[in-house]
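PROTEIN DATA CARD
Card holder: AI-2E family transporter
Chain length: 377
Origin: Shewanella loihica
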Amino acid sequence: MDNEAKAQQRKEFIGNMTESAIRIGLLAILVIWTYDIVRPFIVPALWGAIIAVALMPLTHRLERMLKGRRGLAATLIALVGIALLVTPFVVVSGSIFEGVSNTLKVLQSGEIHLPEPTQRVAEIPIIGERLFEVWHNIASNLEKAILHFLPEIKAGFSALAGVIGSSLATLVMFIISLLIAAGFMANSEQCAAAMSKVAVRAVGPNAHAWTSLTAATIRSVLLGVVGVAFIQAMLIGSALFVFGLPAAGLLTLVALFLGIAQLPALIIVLPLIGYAYSSMEGTSATIFSVWIFLGGISDNILKPMLMGRGVDVPMPVILIGAIGGMLFAGIIGLFLGAVVLAIWYELFIAWLNGGEPEAVLAQAEAPESQRDVEAAE
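Structure generated from the sequence above:
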């Protein structure tokens, strides 16, 4: 009798295990198919949510000016954002493509010349003599070196041209993200209610504080890092385009990357000043140098104005996030990676402090903006 009962229990156990395995397998297939369907929308939706959180205070102010029409306010912000993206994108991309094409033509023709530095370069304070010597050595041996590595250089420029060719997809991704952000901002109450339920289930009683800290971190990094880098790159790029320097678009893109990576823009500004004094008339070189130098140090003025108080993310976190994000999702990942990694860093620090992020949050947000934080969670 006992053997029959054990056999029956064994059969029931095997049946239950088989049924559970089938259910888990079907659920896994469903999850995989769902992920494949929504995968193209994950990055723009995530970026749109980050933009919506960062711009929600501006949406509230514009909503009050438009007498409560939040949908119109969100639409206007999205349209302005698209215009601010498309205009410099077209100018910079055209400049980069033209510079790459001209460089490839020069390399193919073999007529490679770098102008010798003038005596005015040597007269630059502190670095002038050293810069003159390095420049002279490079100019004297440039043609031989470039001709030796010509195949590798051509391959590099071809790859760069391919990246530029795919940049249109990135622009479309940005536009889609802004439209998604407009939808989130127009329906912030419903989105906040849904996120609150998810946060309570995932985090527990500290859900409100955690989501508020996340919102504060997003605003701090998006405005204080990405926003400052964008403004600084535009200031530097405007000087390059106005004075017609070669590869102005590519240099503007480099300035943007340096700004997001929290590296000083003077890395490229100082060599450009030296180039200006060697190739321009004195007055033009001075105006250009003052303009681009002010752009190079503008982050020291803009960051205290835009960076949220109390949310202090170390530079390596931003740098790793920017580089990793770019490798993962292209140009949009350059912005997205820095924000996402900063969020995880702040949440991790709050968890190390005992799981109570209220103290960090109290320093990160000003009291008058508390309503905006709550509405943007």
